Amino acid sequence: MKLFRFFAIGLLLVLTISLRPVIADADSVSWTSEYYRAYANSADISIDEDTGPPFPVEAFSRCCTSGGHDSWAEADITTSAMHAAGSAITSLSYTNLPTNAIAEFDGYYTADNPYFLFSYSYSTFLIGSEPEINSVFSLEVIDMTTSSPLLSQIFQDGSAVISIPTVVGHDINVHMVLDVNVDPYANYMQLYSDVDYSMSTVVPEPISSILFVTGGTLLAGTAFLQKKEIYLTTK
């Protein structure tokens, strides 16, 4: 009975491991076009913008010092990280416009694998607690061949890996934005947002290998138990 229990537990572990979605190969995305943009706007008085590649793509603006504080905005983006931050003051009447920082990516590729894999780690740091401050990190994936949305999502702080099915041969558009807004009506505040990310295309593990491992385990375990039962019976 103990042997049977050990066998059942072992089989359950094998099934759990072998039936997980397993990635056999992960390839970097072969972009047919890619566009990176950093935008910084301090109260519509100081505005900066940069696009790429080449890298780094970064923008910075500053205006309106008052009471030892500045209204400023900054943004930058690379192929693996994006950052957007800003602060705003309210003591000067002509600065009653929000500070805005944007890091943005837009790319196109032709699907050569059946999945698009997106992984990210997103964090924010806030000085202040007013609702007029917000950071939005979003991703949109569209099948341009059929004009079909594959994903449209706004993320919360944290990290995850997302697998998105695609049709091999179809043209895919990926649009990612990190948008930070700080409203000066909320007094002096600061907000920092950072994202580390990666994008790749993947091929899932062939189901035949999963069935082979599972079937082999069943046969071997059954034969072992039968031999053990014969041994115990004849002893």
Relevant terms:
single chain, 235 residues, alpha+beta, Jelly Rolls, 2 domains, seven-stranded antiparallel β-sheet, six-stranded antiparallel β-sheet, 2 helices, 13 strands, 56% strand, elongated, disordered N terminus
Folded structure, characterized:
This protein has two helices and 13 strands; from the N terminus they run αβββββββββββββα. It is α+β, with helices and mostly antiparallel strands. Strands 1, 4, 5, 6, 8, 11 and 13 form a seven-stranded antiparallel beta sheet that branches. A six-stranded antiparallel beta sheet has the order 3-2-7-12-9-10, with no helix packed on it. Helix 1 (2-18) packs antiparallel against helix 2 (207-234). The chain is elongated, with a radius of gyration of 27 Å. Residues 1-9, 11-24 and 207-214 have low confidence and may be disordered.
The share of residues in extended strands comes to over 45%
CATH class of the largest domain reads Mainly Beta
Mean pLDDT equals 80
Tally of DSSP helical segments: 2
Domain unit count:
2
How far is the first residue's CA from the last residue's CA? 16 Å
Major beta sheet, specifics? 7 strands, antiparallel
How many DSSP E strands? Answer: 13
Strands, helices and their partners?
Elements lengths: L1 H17 L4 E6 L2 E12 L3 E7 L4 E10 L2 E9 L3 E8 L10 E12 L4 E13 L5 E11 L4 E8 L2 E8 L5 E12 L6 E16 L2 H28 L1
Helix pairs in contact: 1-2
